[in-house]
Structures are given as C-alpha cells and as structure tokens.
Automatic annotation (TrEMBL):
It comes from the Eukaryota. This is Uncharacterized protein. It comes from Mycena albidolilacea. InterPro entries: Plavaka. Residues 1-43 are annotated as: Disordered.
Amino acid sequence: MGTGDGDNFVYPARDETPPPPEPISRPRRLTVEEVPDEGDPENFSRFVEPYDNEELGRSLPGRPLRRGETLFHHMRARQEVDGTTKYFPFRDGEEWDLARWLSKNVSQTATEEYLALPIVSHRHRHYWMAYFRNKKTNLSFHNNRAFLQKVDQLPTGPDWTCKVVTAVGNRVDENDELMSKDLELWIRDPVECIKELMSDPAFREHMAYASERVYGTKEGTEESRIFDEMWTAEWWWKIQVSSRYCPIKNEY
C-alpha cells in the first residue's frame, strides 16, 4: 500500500440526523358552554308574596263571581248549531292550513297565480280529480277574489271606526295661513279589545288578576325585588290596596 498523501485523507464529518418532525396536532373541537345570563330574570329564584292574605284583611282580587261562556266558546256553539265545522268558512283542516299559509307568506298577485295552476284550478278540477284520485286538490276557492271573500267571513273582533284628524303644519299658504291636511285615523275601542283578549282560551293560563311582590331571595329584601310583569309593579299593589277602601279616581 502506498504512503502518499492519499493515506492522510480525512473523511468529512457527517451531519447529525435531524430529529423527526413533530406530529401535527389535530384541531380541537370547539365547544360552546351555555352560561346563564346574570341579568335575565328567568334565571333568578322567584319567591312570591301574593296579595291574598286573610290575616292582613286582603282578599284575593279577581275571584270568580259566576261561571260564564267566553266569546270564543259562544262562536263555537253557534257553529255547531249551524252545522259547520270549526274551520268554517273553509272546507276542512287542510284547506284552513293552506289559507293560513297563503295569508302569511304569499302576496295577492302570487296567490292568484298559484290558484290558476292546473293542479288547483277550478277550471281543470274534473281532469285533475281523475288524475290525482287520492289528492284533495279541489279547493272551495278558485281565485284570489274568492279566497278573500272566504277570509272576510272569519270573525273580525271589535269593529274599526274611522275619524278624520286635521294636522296643521308649519308652512303657510298664499294667504299667510298655516297649511293643514286631513288624515284618516282608524281606531278600535280598547276596552272591547281587552275583553276579546281576556276571553281567548289560549291565554287562560297566562292571565293575572292580582298583584304580587316577587323577590330573588327568601328574606324578601327590597334589594332583591324583581320587576318583570305588570302585576309585579308597586303601582298595581298600591292601587289594589286603596281600591278596597275607596273608589279609584281617574288621574288622567
């Protein structure tokens, strides 16, 4: 073997093997934790002091005097006498659902176009009844005008009345007089509206006839007083107390 310069060859140092890459972390699933709203009265504990207290001489207001028939029960009884269903003037529940959907979601022009479709059209009902034997496509109204006539037969509640109100502006005319304009004001008797709401069976479990004091603690401190509904206000409580001894005066 030779002893030349080749014997003194030095091999270059090898680089250290790099460490393996860190595994890619999987994205964490986001979770939403529901935290009760501290300011929401529905999340408070409710301790009720009712107005009814015989020891303090406070009898329960709104105590029933007699049993009667509400306006809605009277209308249903009249329908039974006339031999009509509760969906009158519509044929059945399916037609009632369609009428309610049209009234809420479809304009009068679109209603006219929908009722003109062959599948629901009065002009093609015999053809489509033969084609769709098991489908109720034969409606009792065939255009928008007939549909609105059906709607007009529904109970309307308290009557509307119109009053003309003259509004005076801040501009003057050629005679240097303030210009005015007559406006139509459509109104309904609020007492009759309240009577209709109070006679609706759907609101039976949500009506209150007596005032209450509601607290957020058992001690019933004034700092924990809760005011949310009208009957929890102090005004109603004071009027309820004073009305037992003297008539309520109209302050307005």
